[in-house]
Design a protein that fits this description.
About 50% of the residues lie in helices and about 15% in strands. A four-stranded antiparallel beta sheet has the order 1-8-3-6. It has a four-stranded antiparallel beta sheet with strand order 2-7-4-5. It has a four-stranded mixed beta sheet with strand order 9-10-11-12. A hairpin with a 6-residue loop joins strand 4 and strand 5 (about 80-85). The chain starts with 5 loop residues before the first helix and ends with a helix.
Length: about 650
């Protein structure tokens, strides 16, 4: 907390002179009352009121934003009750003390207040408030403030009771790895014989052994390694293989202080079943897939098995399995980025499984295998790795050049990929992915072809940059390979770079189009209450699209042609386009909007309502409104930065 100078005092006095608390007094009385108040300034994340501080005044926020939080039973566990902004009063709950009402419930103060950006407040002692209290307008003002705040608190409380009754208590995903791992870990030296390693597994009833070079982690040997390698050694009595020769070197590890969901993401993305646990550079335990299945809800792993084992007739079961995982992740309040990471992995497995089934189907029909390498790419929300519920299919297919083939073979290649696309789209539809209403799918010849076709398409978009082609390009350029040939993908990526790098006018036209889609302003809750504000907001079109489009245009302009929104933000920080602090603001805005969208979409789904990104503002609770207002402000700033880059 810092003391303001005389200039700040003068500005603050002018600012509050016509505030409802002082509006009814003459200038002399105001000077006398204001002199008894104190002007306070707070830095970001500074405590304004501690949880056990006795309340002897009200604080009027002159500028800035603060959060009111309650300390939980566990150390470090807090819950934000509400967000207050410029013009709001801090300490309304102490009005009962000011009025001399008796205390009905004896409890310690457990509500604190903290700034979340630089904030300036006017401390108004109760004796100043008492001197103004005879004014009926001031009492009416305070009554309205209390009524609005009480409504918000009741709405928040009702929501928490509803969730508690619906879900009950659940083991949180935020448990630490050290609470789940097996310890001590079973180790062997790299020079030990494989027979010695196998004996250790049997004696200790474990499915893996960590291999050390003295005290340094060198590798891991699992039961699968033993089975796989045993065939090559059967009958060979002349050698005694060492652990070093059979181990998997440089295994993926997890830190003991990492969260459950971080280990979970590694199991999924790395397709492994054993994770050595590291603390201070030393192996301290082992975490296995079995540990998680034993100590946590099996739903996730059942879902993986449902995907991997589903035949064509049972693809419809996958949606329910993945939605069960989503419900658990959302219920346990995981960070949005980790929810998306887990769900993206599951959806990718679903698509890869459908591609495998489709390939087998085409072989059974006598079409053989792929005539040339190919890549199956997703675009739009799936391409950005932010799909959380099954939506329309958005994908395209790239295959290698067929110019070296004769005319008949070229025709057969085109026929194969046409049938592949039709079959995959059919299987994805059975699994719950609706067909794209705009027909932006690999079944459409416009979204399927060799590298030369995609080069021609990009050039046509650049030459004829209509609003429609620009929107198609936005969707297309949010691409991500789900399965395919890595070398071909690198060629495709190089083609994108070569075609877009000299096309600055194309990016300029994309930026101009965004001028028509300005980010809205969400009004203050009091104005919304009086029906003077925005009644509905489309989170997708009015918040996420402007965010993604501005971020994508800036990333393309600075040489990044692939990646998730997080990748693009990191890249732009590296290019000095964003400051690290602005990147954090953007991340907060993006995840905040996504969290609101996730929760309301899941509620709509459970209420058997159409899942839509359009939400009445009245359905947002106080905290969601505040988070969304801050997010929209940040996204407007991002959009403005993009305009400045193109001289608009």
């Amino acid at each position: 907390m810092t003391a303001p100078n005389n200039q700040h005092h003068t500005l603050a006095a002018a600012h509050v002179r016509h505030h409802p608390l002082f509006k009814g007094v003459d200038d002399a009385a105001f000077e006398q009352l204001y002199s008894r108040c104190q002007l306070l300034s707070f830095e970001t994340h500074e405590i304004i009121l501690h949880s056990k501080t006795e309340r002897e005044s009200l604080l009027l926020i002159l500028n800035g934003t603060v959060e009111v939080f309650v300390q939980g039973a566990a150390v470090g566990k807090e819950e934000v009750l509400e967000i207050l902004q410029t013009g709001d009063l801090i300490g309304l709950s102490s009005i009962a003390d000011f009025l001399g009402e008796p205390v009905h419930i004896q409890t310690q103060h457990n509500v604190g207040v903290r700034s979340i950006e630089p904030t300036q407040c006017l401390d108004i002692p109760f004796d100043v408030l008492e001197q103004c209290w005879e004014d009926e307008e001031i009492r009416n003002y305070m009554l309205r403030q209390l009524a609005v705040r009480l409504k918000d608190v009741y709405a928040s409380l009702a929501e928490q009771v509803y969730l508690a009754q619906r879900w009950g208590e659940s083991e949180p995903f935020v448990r630490r790895v050290h609470d789940l791992m097996s310890s001590p870990v079973i180790c062997a030296q790299s020079s030990d014989t494989i027979q010695h390693v196998a004996r250790k597994m049997i004696d200790n009833n474990v499915s893996s052994v960590v291999v050390l070079e003295e005290t340094r982690l060198a590798g891991i040997i699992t039961e699968s390694d033993l089975v796989r390698q045993m065939g090559t050694e059967i009958g060979n009595t002349q050698t005694q293989p060492s652990a070093r020769s059979w181990m998997t070197p440089n295994p993926v590890t997890v830190n003991s202080d990492d969260y459950y969901y971080e280990a979970l993401a590694l199991f999924l993305t790395e397709n492994i079943k054993h994770l050595p646990v590291i603390k201070d550079g030393q192996v301290v335990g082992m975490l296995t897939l079995s540990d998680l299945m034993r100590k946590k809800n099996r739903g996730l792993f059942d879902s993986i098995q449902t995907i991997e084992k589903a035949d064509i007739a049972h693809l419809g079961r996958i949606k329910e399995a993945i939605y069960s995982v989503f419900a658990n992740l959302l219920r346990d309040d995981l960070p949005v980025t980790h929810i998306l990471e887990v769900l993206t992995t599951l959806y990718d497995r679903l698509v890869q499984h459908c591609l495998q089934l489709a390939s087998e189907t085409l072989k059974q029909k006598g079409l053989g295998g792929p005539p040339v390498p190919y890549c199956w790419l997703h675009m739009g929300s799936s391409g950005r790795a932010e799909q959380f519920m099954l939506t329309d299919q958005d994908h395209f297919l790239v295959y290698a050049s067929v110019d070296h083939l004769d005319e008949n073979d070229r025709h057969q290649a085109a026929n194969y990929f046409s049938h592949l696309a039709e079959t995959v789209v059919d299987y994805l539809q059975r699994a719950g992915f609706a067909k794209c209403k705009g027909n932006m799918m690999a079944t459409n010849p416009d979204w399927r072809g060799p590298l030369s076709y995609w080069q021609q398409t990009l050039r046509q978009w650049a030459l004829r940059a209509t609003n429609n082609t620009l929107m198609q390009a936005h969707n297309f350029l949010a691409f991500r390979m789900v399965q395919g040939d890595q070398h071909l993908y690198e060629q495709f990526l190089q083609l994108i770079k070569e075609e877009l790098k000299p096309s600055s006018i194309f990016l300029y036209r994309m930026a101009v189009l965004e001028k028509e889609h300005s980010v809205p302003t969400l009004d203050h809750p009091l104005r919304s209450l009086l029906r003077l504000g925005k009644k509905e907001i489309d989170l997708k079109k009015e918040a996420l699209f402007p965010f993604h489009h501005a971020l994508q245009i800036l990333a393309l302009h600075h040489g990044l042609y692939e990646g998730t929104p997080l990748d693009k933000m990191e890249h732009l920080v590296g290019k000095k386009v964003f400051t690290p602090s602005f990147k954090e603001e953007l991340l907060y805005a993006y995840t905040g909007v996504m969290k609101i969208r996730m929760e309301h979409a899941w509620h709509q789904f459970n209420q058997k309502q159409p899942v839509s990104s359009r939400l009445p503002v009245s359905q947002l609770n106080y905290r969601e409104k505040e988070d969304l207002r801050r997010a929209l402000k940040t996204i407007r700033s991002l959009q403005q930065q993009m305009f400045i880059h193109f001289g608009m």
